[in-house]
Amino acid sequence: MANLPPPPPPPPSRNPKSLRDRLRGSGDSDKPGMPRWLVWALIAVAVVLLVGPRLLPTPEQTRLTYTEFLDLVERGGVREVTINNLNNQISGKLSDSRNFVTTGANTLSDADEQLLKSKGVDYDFSTPQGNFFTNIIPILLPFFLIMGFFIWMQRRAMGQAGNIMSIGRSRAKPYQADKPSTTFADIAGYEGVKQEIREVVDFLRMPDRFKEIGARVPKGVLLVGPPGTGKTLFARAVAGEAGVGFLSVTGSDFMEMFVGVGASRVRDLFQQARKMGRAIIFVDEIDSIGRKRGAGLGGGHDEREQTLNQMLSEMDGFETSEGVVVMAATNRPDILDAALLRPGRFDRQIIVPLPEAEERHAILKVHSTGKRMGADVDLDTMSKATPGMSGADLANLVNEAALIAVRRGATEIERIDFENARDRVVMGARRESLALNAEEKRAVAFHEGGHAVLSTVLPNSDPLHKVTILPRGMALGVTWSLPEERHTYSREYFLDMICKAMGGRVAESIVFGSLNSGAANDLEQATSIARRMVREWGMSDAVGPMAWSGQQQVFLGEDLMTSGREYSDDTARKIDDEISRILREQEERARVTLLKHRRGLDLVAEALLEHETVDGATVAKLIQQGLGAPTIHEKVPEKNPDKSVNKADPERD
Predict the structure, then answer these.
(1) Beta-bridge partner residues of 324
(2) CB-side neighbour CA atoms (13 Å) of 26
(3) What is the DSSP secondary structure assignment for residue 319, as one 8-state letter?
(4) Could you tell me which of 367, 374, 311 has the C-alpha nearest to residue 339?
(5) Sign of CA pseudo-dihedral 304, 305, 310, 313
(6) Do 173-294+302-351 and 62-126 fall under one CATH topology?
(7) Which of 331, 333, 317, 346 is nearest to 221 (CA)?
(8) Fold of the domain spanning 359-427
(9) Full-model pTM
(10) Which of the residues are catalytic?
(11) What would the pLDDT profile of 24-70 be if each residue is shown by its tens digit?
């Protein structure tokens, strides 16, 4: 069947012209207003009339003092005099026809007037009349100020009235379909997500193809995933691919201080979409208006609940919206109202997860396009070294590498730049100002050496990438591993992680015979893993196959009175004993392993003190050198059967 062309765009709305447009005389108004050039011409004429006379050239005049003027009169050197009654200025002509000017007293004395008469000087009194505009300005200026004030108040009131009248209108931004900026080709990986979204786009572009076999398009598509995975990017790609009307709005655009404004904006939003025929509405961060109703200590928020109720009614209420698909994005689906997630509203939930290694490689390649990359840059290795990073993190990683390359004066982005950028993104910037004394530096070297040795010799540990004693962020040293792509984690893997976390503390105890506060984060990580092994993953024979999750938060809609502990005091004591047993056993295991590889530990610490950063291959060679034979992997001492957990995150607390 031939593809049906998209419906023609609606005609542009003819809004009434503003007062400014009417004054400009632009457009096709019936009564054009005053042209803009005429206003400027009138202003120019007024300025010329006021300032022009002052700029005209005046005849050259000799400036005299009043005493000099009287002396000239005595000697008969003055021919005629004119006295200005307004400013008491005396001007006239001398006997040699030169002009002069002086300033006299407030009133001409009788003696001076008699002197002028006796010398035959022709004198006169004059009161010059001012310019018409100069005389009328003092009268009209207050009038113009008062009129301008009233006009300003009227426009302000009209603007406020306009804002109040338009407060219930939707703030959605229409997308220009003729200028697509993002398509699915710009998104690396996520083929499954693209396929699910393409079905919605194809239905809007070719509805008859689906209606022939009775298929119904989902009314709502909810994009769910961690922050930075590209949910909004997918929405922009849909806008560029669909070829139909697209309206974009955020959840916060519906919220105002007035109750009912959000519901009014929802109604106006769907009315705009219906006028387009077939359209997509994208609501970003929908959790701001779609939270569970009646949740929390203080009850529900009336404005938010009214907005949510109107959204539910518009999506699947008494009046259906044919041809309008709602897309939404959130990273907190657990707090959304159940009525919003049911079929008929958001029929389809599309998970946008964190990218896998291959997808990270493709994302790095996309963000590296257009950048000058060095020959030693291996994006495949970098993709394996960045587990858990989202697309936004990877984009920031490439940009940080470019900034570091510019900072060190290089013309290309090299491997060392990517390494430093990853360290900066994950751990923070290098603390150049922090200077450790010799004793502290040696303690950090053995601490990180203990982690590095256990990461190398333990059989279920992730491969060691590098170890450094350069302070970064809040850490004085870092041991990096390259986690393999896993979706299930065994108990042996978690035990090796706990043992590796104990390595720094145990190494300091073996070498120095004392402990310090440097292992605080290691103990926190080890305790968190052990607690989850016992409470959530059923990896303890003493407790058995039982799971207890943490306490539910009140704002998620859970009842405060029933969110207490789910087990008895005896069970709590048993859980605490099991956690303590696991931690002590792995600490002892770390001690036995490091004592066996004591020579290798010393060599690794010496290499760190000399070079500050050592890679994983060098650490393995030093351990083999200390043993005098190839490394023998240590075995887990426990004989419990292998138990695994699906999709566990060992790094999460």
Answers:
(1) 279
(2) 8
(3) S
(4) 311
(5) positive
(6) no
(7) 346
(8) Helicase, Ruva Protein; domain 3 (1.10.8)
(9) 0.62
(10) 448
(11) 444 443 444 456 677 677 777 767 666 665 555 556 677 888 788 88
